[in-house]
Amino acid sequence: QVQLKESGGGLVQPGGSLTLSCSASGVNLYDYATGWFRQAPGKEREAVSCINFSEGLTKYAPSAKGRFTISRDDAKNTVYLQMNSLKPEDTAVYYCATYYYGYGCYDPVQPDSWGQGAQVTVSS
User: Which DSSP string do the residues of the chain spell out, in sequence order?
Assistant: First the structure.
């Protein structure tokens, strides 16, 4: 059974940084594309970033490009999202999710397994 657990959320001032972690059990993240998504109150869930299986090709939403960095530690079976220069509009619940085996970040499919989410609040 796939289990994904996000951690590292919290309250940060505008311009600050946070790193989210997505630790996995029941799945080897090296073999699965893993994405970060977010959902703000009253808004639809949106894709933030994704790291492909194996070679780790990455993908970013325009709002994240240049500020966020996704990475994977295969030894720890964990995917990270380093977020810098945070803005109030980044406030949301952030979720990590894995795609079906064999599907990558650029395939037109939805993720298969989801974590419970981590709250990120950017406010002064």
Answer: --EEEEE--EEE-TT--EEEEEEEESS-GGGS-EEEEEE-TTS--EEEEEE-STT--EEE-TTTTTTEEEEEETTTTEEEEEE-S--GGG-EEEEEEEPPTT--TTSS---SEE---EEEEE--
